[in-house]
Amino acid sequence: MLHREIGGAKTMRDQLAHLAGMARRPSITVQVIPRIGAHVGLSGAFVMAETPESHVVYLDHIADGMTTDSPAIVTQVSTRFDTLRTDAYRGADSLMMIEEMAVKWTP
User: Over the chain, what is the mean pLDDT?
Assistant: First the structure.
């Protein structure tokens, strides 16, 4: 995402500046995944939601999406998320990378 141009340089800069602004908020953590090699996040996007009564995941793929509260699937997605967080750069390092790339995308 940091290096793949989508929408032109100005759009990239604006999106990265917005992402950096969000990452500076105390209740938001943004972590960048290293560009080298494959990782479990490449298998598709997901969203996890948690309440005191329920854990739900939304899985997105090229043809469709699915919401489920299946304990087996929720556990599998949670494990993959933990793996991604472990492989990702720390939040402060990720923010620095995002800010540096925003400057590089400045026309």
Answer: 90
